[in-house]
Amino acid sequence: MLEGARALGFQELSESAYATLIVEFALTGEGSVADQDKHEDVSDALTEKLGWLGLGYCEDGKVTGDGIEICCRVLNVELAKTIISEALDGSVFADYSRIYQE
Fold first, then answer.
1. What is the pLDDT of residues 39-83, one digit of tens each?
2. pLDDT of 24-42, one tens digit each?
3. What is the pLDDT of residue 18?
4. Taking the chain, what is the end-to-end CA distance rounded to the nearest angstrom?
5. Strand ranges (DSSP E) for 6-97?
6. Per-residue pLDDT at 64
7. Is the N or the C terminus of the chain less surrounded, counting Cβ atoms within 10 Å?
8. In 3D, which of 37, 35, 81 has the Cα closest to residue 56?
9. How far apart are CA 24 and CA 79, in angstroms?
10. How many CB atoms within 10 Å of residue 61?
11. Which pLDDT score, from 0 to 100, does residue 92 have?
């Protein structure tokens, strides 16, 4: 799949080109199955949004007793923060507590 792009001169970026943004959702109590589902749904939605715009992707993250953390690897921190907040605001995921650079 990537061979065609490589043949055209495109190269994969090194991991050092990416910064880490965390999208956090506050929780009260222990993480539940619904919280894990929310983590996966938000991560999938943001990976699609960031990927289509060529800004990055989401990986890993975790659900703890305090919150849900979604780890996004991005190429442009400020633009990615704006895109992420616009994507979440007005959606069923608008209850995020913050987006910060790790």
1. 999 999 999 999 999 999 999 888 887 899 999 999 999 999 999
2. 999 866 667 888 899 999 9
3. 94
4. 32
5. 19-26, 56-63, 67-74
6. 82
7. N
8. 81
9. 18
10. 17
11. 93
| Stated length of the chain | 102
User: Phi then psi for 22, rounded to 5 degrees?
Assistant: -110, 130
Sole residue written with tokens 């959606």: 91
CATH architecture of 16-101: 2-Layer Sandwich (3.30)
Q: Which two tokens stand for residue 44?
A: 């999938």
Instruction: Give, in order, the Cα–Cα distances in Å from 100 to each of 2, 28, 76, 80.
Output: 32, 20, 13, 11
Beta bridge partners of 67: 26
Q: What is the pTM of this model?
A: 0.84
Report helix angle 33-52 to 77-88, nearest 10: 120
Residue 12 clears pLDDT 90, i.e. is over it? no
